[in-house]
Specification:
heterodimer; A: 359 residues; alpha/beta; D-Maltodextrin-Binding Protein, domain 2; 9-stranded mixed beta sheet; B: mainly alpha; 0% strand
Chain lengths: 359, 272
C-alpha cells in the first residue's frame, strides 16, 4: 500500500505548487506529447522515474505525474474531478469504494497483453475480495504490514503484536499514524477481524490503543523507516516494502509477520470513469506490466511485485526468494485484506481514532 | 483616490479576491453544509465534543505559553536593539531574520533531528557524560518549536514600537526625577503597547493554528486543534468538519484583530 518515502514537507510543497500550477495553467494548453498525454495519480515515490521517461520516449505520450500520500487524501481529489486523472493506484479497500461509487472504468485486457501474461494469477484471485470480477484493477504492488525490530535493542525475538504492549519497551515503539493500520494492530491483538464494525469489539480495540499510548514513542507514517535505521526506537510497525530497504541500511533490523495475523494489501492500477485519455492509459498500464519495466520499478521501490516474469529476472537470489518480499502466505493464519467499511463505518473508525489520539 | 491609484491597486484586489475571499467563502460553504449540501451547524458545534475541545484547550495552552516565553525573550532584546547605533542593530536584526530565509518546515525538521533520543544534542551531552535531554515528543518540544519559529515575529514589532519612542520623552521623565524603573513602567511600556499587541497577535495566531510543529516535534501523540483540522482534510476526507472547526478558530483570530485595532490605532506596531 504505501510508499511514504516522500516527506510530508515535500508533499505539501508539491501540492501547493501543483495547486497553483492548476490555477494558473487551467486555460492554457499544456505541452502535450506528439501522441497526446496521460495523467497518472500515484503514491509518493512509488515508481522509478526512469520508467516514465522510457514510456514517453517509446510512445510519444506525455506523462503528467502527480502523487498522493494516503488513500484518504487521494479519494476526494479524484471524486471532485478538480483534475481529470486517467489512472490512479489506490489500495484494495479504496478500490472497492471507488467501484461502489461508479468511479472506475472497465478494463479491456485485450489492449493490455502484458497484464495477463506477466501478473501472477493468484494476485488476481486475491483481488477478487475487492474487485469480484477483476474488471477494474490490475495489481501493481502488494505486501504485508508487520513488525520491524532492532535485534540489539530487544531481549527476545519479537513475534507477536502483544509485545507492542510490553512495558519493557516503553518509549521505544513506533506505531502507524493511520486509522486503519493502527486499529488493525489492536483488532488482531484481541483476535477480531480487521474489518469489524461491531461496536463492542471496536470499543475493546480502542481501549487497547489508549492503554498502549503511554508506551509509544511516536505515531509516525513515513518516518518509521528513518527512525528505525537510526536506532531511534526498538520496534516499529512498517510495510513489508520498506523492510528490505531498511535492512540494507541497518543490518540489525528484522522484519516479522506477527503470529496474530496481519493485513495483506494490494495496490492496483485503475482507469477512472471519465478518463480523458483512456487509450493512452491502457498503454501506460501495459507498459508498467512489461517485465523489464516492472523489474526496474521493483528494484527502485523494493515493494513486492505481482509481476512473476519480473521476479524471474531478479538477479540477487536472496531477494528473489526473500521471505519479506515474497512470503509464502499459506503458512500464516489470520491474514486479511481491508474491505471498504462504508461511509458510516469510516467515520466510526475516524471518531474512535481521534479519541485515541486526543486521549 | 485618483483613478491612477485605483488601477495600481487592481493586482492586489485581484490577488485578495482569488486567494483570500474565494477560499474564505469556500471554507464557509463547506463549514455550514453537510455531505448532502444541506445547511447545518453541526460542523461548528463539533468543537464541543470531548476530543476536539481537548485539542483546542491544549492548543490554547501551548500557544499561550509560547507567546509569553517569546514576549519575555523578545522585550529585553528589542530594548537593547532600540538603544543601539543603527549600523550595529541592522546586523543583529539580520541575524534574527537569517533563519527565516530557510523553509519553516525544514527548520522544524532540523529541531526533530537535534532533539531525538540519538540526536545531535544528546550525542554532545553524552560525550560530556551529561544526562540526556528527553523532551522530544512532549509539550516542551512543541513549545520550543513554536518559540523558535515565531520569535522574530515578536521581536520586530516590539523593536519597531520601541525605536519610535522619542528619546526626548524619556529624557524629560528622567529630568523630572523618574528613576530607570519608573521611566520604564510609566513611559516606555505604555508607549510600546501597540508593538506588544501586534507581537502577541503575530505569535499567538500561528502558534494556535499550527499542525506542522506539533506533528513533527510532538510525535503525533499530542493532538492540537490544527492537527485535527489538517487530518480532517488529508486523512479523513471530511472537508465539512475541517472547515467548520476552522471557522471556530477564526473566532480567536477575529478577537485578536479587534484587540489590535483597539490598541494600535495608528498601526505603529507593524512589522518593519
Amino acid at each position: 500500500m504505501k510508499k511514504y518515502r516522500i516527506h510530508h514537507t515535500k508533499q505539501i510543497i508539491i501540492t501547493l505548487a501543483l495547486l497553483s500550477a492548476v490555477t494558473f495553467c487551467g486555460c492554457s494548453s499544456t505541452d502535450k506529447g506528439i501522441n497526446g498525454q496521460v495523467i497518472v495519480y500515484n503514491w509518493g515515490e512509488y515508481i522509478d522515474p526512469e520508467t516514465i521517461r522510457m514510456f514517453e520516449e517509446e510512445t510519444g505520450i506525455k506523462v503528467i505525474y502527480d502523487e498522493f500520500e494516503t488513500n484518504e487524501s487521494m479519494y476526494p481529489k479524484v471524486e471532485s474531478g478538480a483534475v481529470a486523472y486517467d489512472i490512479a493506484c489506490p489500495s484494495d479497500y479504496m478500490i472497492s469504494r471507488m467501484i461502489q461509487n461508479g468511479m472506475l472504468s472497465e478494463l479491456d485486457y485485450s489492449k493490455m497483453p502484458n497484464v495477463k501474461k506477466n501478473i501472477g494469477a493468484q494476485y488476481f484471485d486475491q483481488s477478487k475480495g475487492f474487485d469480484p470480477d477483476n474488471k477494474y484493477s490490475i495489481p501493481y504492488c502488494w505486501g504485508t504490514v508487520g513488525i520491524l525490530y532492532n535485534k540489539t535493542m530487544v531481549d527476545e525475538p519479537i513475534t507477536r503484536w502483544e509485545q507492542l504492549w510490553d512495558e519493557k519497551y516503553a518509549d521505544n515503539i513506533l506505531m502507524q499514524d493511520s486509522v486503519r493500520d493502527a486499529f488493525m494492530v489492536a483488532e488482531k491483538l484481541n483476535g477480531f477481524s480487521m474489518n469489524t464494525l461491531d461496536p463492542d469489539e471496536l470499543a475493546i480495540a480502542k481501549n487497547s490503543l489508549i492503554e498502549q499510548k503511554p508506551l509509544i514513542q511516536a505515531y509516525v507514517v513515513d518516518q518509521v523507516r528513518d527512525k528505525m535505521i537510526g536506532g531511534e526506537a526498538a520496534i516499529g510497525v512498517i510495510y513489508s516494502g520498506e523492510a528490505i530497504y531498511t535492512q540494507r541500511e541497518n543490518s540489525n533490523l528484522v522484519y516479522v509477520i506477527p503470529e496474530e495475523g496481519t493485513n495483506v494489501w494490494i495496490d492496483s492500477w485503475v482507469i477512472l470513469k471519465n478518463a480523458p485519455n483512456k487509450e493512452n492509459a491502457e498503454k501506460f498500464i501495459d507498459f508498467m506490466c512489461r517485465e523489464d519495466i516492472a523489474l526496474l520499478n521493483f528494484e527502485y521501490i523494493t515493494y513486492s511485485t505481482p509481476n512473476e516474469a519480473a521476479r524471474e529476472l531478479i538477479e540477487e537470489e536472496d531477494i528473489k526468494n526473500s521471505e519479506i518480499a515474497f512470503p509464502d502466505l499459506s503458512q500464516y493464519d489470520n491474514l486479511e485484506t481491508y474491505v471498504y467499511l462504508g461511509e458510516e463505518g469510516d467515520s466510526l473508525y475516524n471518531e474512535l481514532w481521534k479519541e485515541v489520539k486526543a486521549y | 483616490m485618483t483613478s491612477k491609484s485605483k488601477w495600481l491597486s487592481a493586482p492586489y484586489l485581484f490577488w485578495s479576491a482569488v486567494f483570500i475571499i474565494i477560499p474564505l467563502c469556500m471554507v464557509f460553504y463547506y463549514g455550514l453544509t453537510d455531505k448532502t449540501g444541506a445547511f447545518t451547524l453541526d460542523n461548528i458545534l463539533a468543537i464541543t465534543s470531548a476530543g476536539h475541545a481537548k485539542a483546542l484547550r491544549l492548543a490554547l495552552l501551548l500557544s499561550f505559553t509560547s507567546t509569553i516565553v517569546c514576549f519575555l525573550l523578545a522585550y529585553p532584546l528589542a530594548m537593547i536593539l532600540a538603544n543601539m547605533k543603527v549600523k550595529r542593530h541592522n546586523f543583529i536584526i539580520l541575524i534574527f531574520i537569517l533563519p527565516m530565509w530557510m523553509n519553516f518546515l525544514l527548520r522544524t525538521l532540523a529541531w526533530q533531528t537535534l532533539l531525538e533520543k540519538n540526536g545531535v544534542i544528546n550525542h554532545v551531552l553524552s560525550f560530556f557524560h551529561l544526562p540526556a535531554l528527553q523532551i522530544i515528543n512532549t509539550p516542551a518540544a512543541i513549545i520550543l518549536g513554536m518559540v523558535y519559529n515565531f520569535l522574530p515575529f515578536m521581536v520586530l514589532p516590539l523593536y519597531n514600537a520601541l525605536a519610535k519612542i522619542d528619546p526626548n520623552v524619556i529624557n524629560a521623565a528622567r529630568d523630572l526625577g523618574a528613576n530607570h524603573f519608573y521611566t520604564f513602567i510609566r513611559i516606555i511600556l505604555p508607549l510600546s503597547i501597540p508593538g506588544i499587541i501586534s507581537g502577541i497577535t503575530m505569535v499567538f495566531i500561528p502558534a494556535l493554528t499550527t499542525f506542522v510543529i506539533s506533528s513533527l516535534l510532538g510525535g503525533g501523540k499530542l493532538l492540537l486543534i490544527g492537527d485535527v483540522i489538517e487530518q480532517e482534510f488529508t486523512r479523513m476526507s471530511n472537508w465539512h468538519l475541517g472547515s467548520g472547526l476552522s471557522m471556530v478558530l477564526m473566532i480567536f483570530i477575529v478577537i485578536n484583530m479587534i484587540l489590535s485595532a483597539v490598541f494600535d490605532k495608528e498601526g505603529e506596531g507593524s512589522m518593519l
